[in-house]
From TrEMBL:
Keyword match NADP: yes
Region Disordered, annotated ranges: 400-430
Localization: Cytoplasm
Keyword Glycosyltransferase: no
Span of the signal peptide: none
This protein's name: Sepiapterin reductase
Keyword terms of this UniProt record: Cytoplasm, NADP, Oxidoreductase
Amino acid sequence: MANIFTGKVFLLVTGASRGIGKQIVQTFGALLEGKSHVLLLSRNSELLKKSVDDMPEGVVASYKSIDFSQTSTRELKDVLLDSMKNEKPESFERAIVVHCAAMANFTQLTNEMTDLDEWHKSFNLNMFSPAVLNGIFMDVFKNQATNKYVVNISSYWGLKPDVYVGSYCAAKAAKDMFFKVFALENPDVQVLNYLPGFVGTDMFHDVLKVSKNEELKKKISQMVADKSFVTPEQTVQYLVEVLKKQEYKSGNMKTSVADPWSSVDSCGNGDAGNSDLSEASSSAATVQKSFEDSFVDSSATASEDLQKLPDSEQYLARLQSRLKAIQGGTSKRDLINSLSEAKEDCIARLITAGQNLETAEERELAANPVIRHIAPHLQALTANELVHLLKADVLQKVVDEQNNQSENEDTESKSTDSQPDIQNQDCNGL
Ligand SMILES: NC(=O)c1ccc[n+]([C@@H]2O[C@H](COP(=O)([O-])OP(=O)(O)OC[C@H]3O[C@@H](n4cnc5c(N)ncnc54)[C@H](OP(=O)(O)O)[C@@H]3O)[C@@H](O)[C@H]2O)c1
């Protein structure tokens, strides 16, 4: 059955000298039929040449040393056209481009990223060059006869923020979005954003060597000890299956392995680019069926992780005593007593004054709505209004007393209060 690798194929792989890119060349190369072309790009020509030498017979392979952090449109175009070796683009049944080259700096905090040249290099390599190369590739293979496929190698760091990798996270996120837009604009091209998982490559081991993120280093050391990371062979084998079966919607993201950032078995399907959820797995990795992309650290919300401030008990006791004081006079017993007094008063009035429930004073002071409306200053207060005002006065007195009391308490406990704030700030740091 025909698939992405059958027929005469043109395959371009960036970052082909090492790691995942090198494995893609090997695995894809072995599936290609004769007369297919392979073009390998990265900086290290010695390693690229080795990969070219390993290509199966019949496949026309070439390589070019190129630094994507400081290349130009002209150079990228020339490299691609030269590799065609006078073949017409339309002679290829399929054209595949795999954007894999990347590099991260694991040592800088965002506030330290003030060198514009470094920003340019990072974005040139991780975002701009793939975008430009992709456009050139599409232009060369613009004919209708050639089926076109784009594979963008994504990263969790393009989905989830992490310390010390700010420029890499930003560039990877931008690159993912670029290819999603590209997919929308080019429905005739199959676009896959592929998340390879935590793969045991140079990049993976570099984290251990140079990263300043101690938490991440601990996690990776554990993965190395458990051998729970994915090998390049495993992740590329899964990628091959996805591509062969076309098990994705163009522009979607696909991953084969567990979210290395979370040990929680959560299956949140955050948008993250309309993620397709993987069914396949690697034998070495602890496999989840999806990744969490909620941008919320679920572990931080776990109740066992919530630490009590040292003054929690005192604070609660103070609140309780204030509540008790405010509740004074409104207990159930007080309410029943006052109701029973009102009831006796009412009965007495019924007996002595017949049907009239209002007291003589109340009747005398009853508000005349007309006078009240036209001359409110001439209308005396009714008995009910007086009662309300009295109540408000008493309440104000109680509140004032409480405020005075709590002010005194605050002054006494000032030294105890300032300490936990400082400790709390420390807890929220790195
Ligand atoms: N390893 C992981 O756990 C992991 C996880 C998620 C995503 N990824 C993604 O997978 C892809 C490959 O990563 P990897 O783990 O295989 O990394 P790697 O082993 O460090 O390989 C990086 C590749 O990029 C090339 N490269 C680096 N800087 C370059 C430049 N300035 N110009 C041209 N080529 C350059 C390197 O070749 P030269 O040195 O010869 O130039 C090499 O071939 C990356 O896109 C990465 O984001 C990896």
